[in-house]
Amino acid sequence: MSQADIAPPTLFIDGEWVSAVSGGTREIRCPADGTLVSTVDEADRSDAERAVAAARRAFDDSGWPSSSPWERGDLLLRVSDILVRDKETFARAESLDTGKRLVESRIDMDDIAACFRYFGKIAGTDAGRLVDTGSPDALSRVQYEPVGVCGMITPWNYPLLQVAWKVAPALAAGNTFVLKPSELTPSTAILLMRALTEAGLPAGVGNLVLGSGAEVGAVLAEHKDVDLVSFTGGLHTGRTIAAAAAATVKKVALELGGKNPNIVFADADFDTAVDYALTAVFLHSGQVCSAGARLIVQDEVHDALVDEIVRCAEQIRIGGPFDEDAETGPLISAEHLSKVEDYVAKSVAEGAVLRTGGRRPDGDRYARGHYYLPTVLDEVAQGSFAVSEESFGPVLTVERFTDEDDAVRIANDTHYGLAAGVFTADAGRGQRVANRLRHGTVWINDFHPYLPQAEWGGFKQSGVGRELGRAGLGEYQEAKHVYHNL
Ligand code: NAD
């Protein structure tokens, strides 16, 4: 099961593969059974500082920031082609690190290739605009320029996807970067640096450091030579990073958590609502920032809908990444599993009704992995811990509503605002509710689809800024006004 071709040196700094100065390493183990997947370097502050210095030099002294955006776009298209060519290698590496089903990793790889293709295609399409000065004797224009050195810090649930959403637009705009992926899932970031090199990325433009958040991630948030820090991860870490970044007033982009409502009206197609409610929350064992973990059901259909969801949840097949029958997999780590257990225990203690799950599955085949049964908590109280906090596991909470206003009020009663779903047969109502929801993405009669050309991000404490779409490129650009007195 091991990945023989991933071994130190695994830090990529100034165009070279190097080992951590301290000689530190970390073992990466598959969450499905604890098998050793690879050993990688464990960087410390000094490695991170070397990487920042390399990215700074490449930004200030190489021609990269002023290179043709069309050429940068071509490079991204070449990366996309490499990702398509090597899809299976990338997908297997992702599945080994995360325990995610191979079939899901393959879909992720298609999405990642599409992301590079999208930013490759739009890289040169918007240089800025002429501005009317009101005078024939003055010329005025606004032009877009790269921000500078970008620090990127990413999580373990969609390891390469979250990296792609940052690296592709940053390079399209002409920035240099230092990437620190999650210490739990570094493999595909290593493979991506190889792909960028093969595609022709100049030395120093893209740098990779592997290590802990507190050690290596903190350097990227604090360093005076980092102009922007783009972070995807938990709310608590996001606050720490924003506070650290404030000292140098660097730009901050945050993609944080969500406790995403999924509203089902009584007129919704029953089977469709059940199917989507299940995938909304149990995909990747609920380790999805936009998981529909908070079902909000109209009174009339509550009992029938929840009974059917419970029945189906009990039939979900659990297994490892290469188990073709599996419909969902393990959690990322023993530590995370114990957090999910605590979340369920606390929710039940405050009054939630445990309808199914709430424990690890029986059987020897699950003993060495971090598995947890699909869980349904019914009759949770509004404003309670269960509906306010993200479990980031396979746990569905259920609330009831009476009418449209009630549904919108309950769904908006959260400090998060990442994504939401609405199931109804009434198209007008679907649109009305979507317009009133304070969430960055709203799906009507669907859950989870996203497009590289459509912005992604959070309202309220789900984040700051947007990834993907035109605005996703804009995060990595400065607008400069040039006024010329003729
Ligand atoms: P996390 O916040 O624990 O870690 C994310 C990254 O931050 C890791 O690389 C980690 O090493 C680093 N980090 C930790 N402490 C740090 C510090 N003090 N300074 C700098 N970096 C630090 O999150 P996680 O457990 O890896 O991921 C799960 C979370 O990510 C969930 O809350 C989920 O909702 C969120 N997420 C959000 C999106 C989105 O698009 N909004 C996407 C995926 C995941």
Q: Which helices and strands appear, and what pairs or packs with what?
A:
Layout: E1 11-13, E2 16-18, E3 25-29, E4 36-41, H1 45-61, H2 69-85, H3 87-98, H4 102-122, E5 128-131, E6 138-146, E7 149-153, H5 159-173, E8 176-180, H6 187-199, E9 206-208, H7 213-222, E10 228-232, H8 235-246, E11 251-255, E12 261-264, H9 270-282, E13 294-298, H10 299-313, H11 334-349, E14 353-356, E15 375-378, H12 385-388, E16 395-401, H13 404-412, E17 419-423, H14 427-436, E18 441-444, E19 463-464, H15 469-474, E20 477-485
Parallel strand pairs: 7-8, 7-10, 8-9, 10-11, 12-13, 12-17, 13-16, 15-16, 17-18
Antiparallel strand pairs: 1-2, 3-4, 5-6, 6-20, 11-19, 14-15
This protein binds nicotinamide-adenine-dinucleotide (NAD).
